[in-house]
Amino acid sequence: MTLGERLLLALSDHPDDVDRTSNYEKPTTQWNVESALALLEEAFPGFMETAKGKRVLDYGCGDGFQSVALAKAGAAQVLGVEIEENRRTHGAALAAKEGAANVSFAERVSGQFDIVISQNAMEHFIEPAANLREMKEALAPGGRIYMSFGPLWMAPYGHHMHFFTRAPWINLLFSEKTVFRIRSLYRDDGAMSWSPGMNRMTVAMFERLIGEGGLRPLRRRYRTAGGLPVVDGLPFLREFFVNMVDAELAPAEQHR
């Protein structure tokens, strides 16, 4: 074991105290229909009321909790789009269990929508520019995208390795090889790289992508680690402390 591996291991939980099964294989008890929209409602007060009677696309819907919650909250139609078949299957079963007949799940987008949501997904998209373009093209006239995601790549816990270490910035302080060598002591999925699960999204990258994608922010909030009030306005420093991004987006060609 290298010096770097020994140091990272010393900053981590003991391997015997962590379940080695991948935490991405199935939903955990922290997710449920009742709390699925809490993040969006916090980011965009009144969101649930806005969604009533609307056609909603849940882009990157994961296990379907948001999609089903939207249907039960009064959305006229909900389409959950997810590339992983097992997650779509879970969503369909959940919808049947909850009696949400106006929600469906698919691998690809079809149709036009009044609202597109993307929750906790932007930092994971393999081709974020293409994904933003697809979201924009799915908007009906006057439609809006509501997006909330993080932590970003350079934030304290942008490494998404909190399941075995509470040390910040390990993706910046240690090599990829070192991190994934230690990660293998806690997860048995064979992953050896940040790709394709992380696209290394930064604040600057997000701002560039929405501009190049023909989108403009109607509302945008950068939430900093620890609630720091100043760094979100400092172009370089903010990359290390902006933890979450909340953004309501519209096509740039639409007038306010």
Descriptive overview:
- By secondary structure, the protein is of the alpha/beta class.
- It is 30% helix and 20% strand.
- The chain has ten helices and seven strands.
- The protein has helices at 3-10, 38-43, 47-51, 65-72, 85-98, 128-137, 170-173, 176-183, 203-212, 238-241; strands at 55-59, 77-81, 103-106, 113-119, 139-149, 215-224, 242-251.
- The chain has a seven-stranded mixed sheet with strand order 3-2-1-4-5-7-6, with helices on both faces.
- It is globular.
How would you sum up this structure in a few lines?
The chain is of the alpha/beta class and 256 residues long.
Structural shape:
globular
Going by helix content, strand content and strand pairing, the class is alpha/beta
Specify the number of helices: 10
Low-confidence stretches: none
Overall average pLDDT: 92
SSE layout and pairing:
Blueprint: H1 3-10, H2 38-43, H3 47-51, E1 55-59, H4 65-72, E2 77-81, H5 85-98, E3 103-106, E4 113-119, H6 128-137, E5 139-149, H7 170-173, H8 176-183, H9 203-212, E6 215-224, H10 238-241, E7 242-251
Parallel strand pairs: 1-2, 1-4, 2-3, 4-5
Antiparallel strand pairs: 5-7, 6-7
What descriptors fit this protein?
256 residues; alpha/beta; seven-stranded mixed β-sheet; 10 helices; 7 strands; globular
